[in-house]
Amino acid sequence: MLKIDVITIFPGLFTPFLDESMVGIARREGLVETATHDPRGFADDRRGTVDGAPFGGGPGMVMSPGPLVDAIEAVAGPRGSERSGWVVLLSPQGRRLDQAKLQELAIREHVVLVCGRYEGVDQRVVDLAIDEEISMGDFVLSGGEIPAMLLIEGMARLVPGVLGNPESVVVESFQEHLLEGPQYTRPVEYRGLRVPDVLRSGDHGAVARWRRERAIEVTRQRRPDLLGEIES
Ligand code: SAM
After folding, report:
1. Co-location of 52 and 9 in the same domain
2. Ligand 1 test: best mutation among 133, 136, 141, most atoms within 8 Å of CB?
3. Torsion angle of alpha carbons 104, 105, 107, 109, nearest 10°?
4. Which residue's C-alpha comes closest to atom 12 of ligand 1?
5. Cα 97 to ligand 1 centroid, rounded to whole Å
6. Are 109 and 66 in a shared domain?
7. Any domain includes 166
8. Structural domain of residue 10, as residue ranges?
């Protein structure tokens, strides 16, 4: 079972996402447990203020350390050996997410996702309470909520029992540093394009060889950088 806590000032964004589709089923079956926590509840004023103007000037607001650190410590405990959760800040400054990172996170028992907003979070949140920063890529979004959903979906499908067929996660893109090759379903012919005969031959060895060759071909065309990792 994977427990995921999300710290966000927009918990409502997660409601439909957590209720629907694969993540919703995984939660109902007790394979993934989720909870959201609003740092406004940890603010020290009645308005629930969680941001302030940046020291040194500049545009926008910065998320204050107090409410965020208190929210993180309430769900994961203070940083150190006794801490129950692995605390991730979604951040453009983080390490870029890949499948290997998702696999690493999915085998943890408890992951805490911290969503930034505004111009980002006060550095002391990172210094005091964050175990790791993860980025979705070299672009900037307005908040960490969609990155957090992306992480939840990517982790949840790797939890044993969540996908109907456990083979699914073994044969897909980025396993063995390869993209997945082309796939086909019925009908055999569509607008003059036929399913390759080998896939209907019943020869499992030939199918496996064809798939691997196509995977290498697609990877060579689109992501030669990945192939370098298996050829070196
Ligand atoms: N001022 C920051 C900068 O230039 O790096 C950008 C802050 S962004 C507008 C607000 C929040 O969105 C961030 O604190 C982070 O939580 C989230 N965010 C934006 N882009 C992201 C990305 N590529 N990956 C992960 N989180 C991102």
Report:
1. yes
2. 141
3. 150
4. 143
5. 14
6. yes
7. no
8. 2-156
The CA distance from 70 to 103, in Å, is 28
Backbone angles phi, psi at 35, to 5 degrees: -150, 145
Q: Is the pTM of this model over 0.90?
A: yes
Closest-lying ligand 1 atom to the alpha carbon of residue 137: 23
The answer to whether 61 and 118 are in contact (CB under 8 A) is: yes
State in Å: Cα 38 to ligand 1 middle.
Answer: 18
Sign for the pseudo-dihedral over CA of 133, 138, 142, 146 = negative
pLDDT per residue of the chain (232 residues) written in tens, 0 to 9: 999 999 999 999 999 999 999 999 999 999 999 999 999 999 999 999 999 999 999 999 999 999 999 999 999 999 987 888 999 999 999 999 999 999 999 999 999 999 999 999 999 999 999 999 999 999 999 999 999 999 999 999 999 999 988 888 877 888 888 999 999 999 999 999 999 999 999 999 999 999 999 999 999 999 999 997 665 5
Cβ of 147 below 6 Å from ligand 1:
yes
CA–centroid distance, residue 128 to ligand 1 (Å):
19
In a domain, 164, yes or no: no
User: Within this chain, do residues 127 and 221 fall inside the same structural domain, yes or no?
Assistant: no
Domain count within the chain: 2
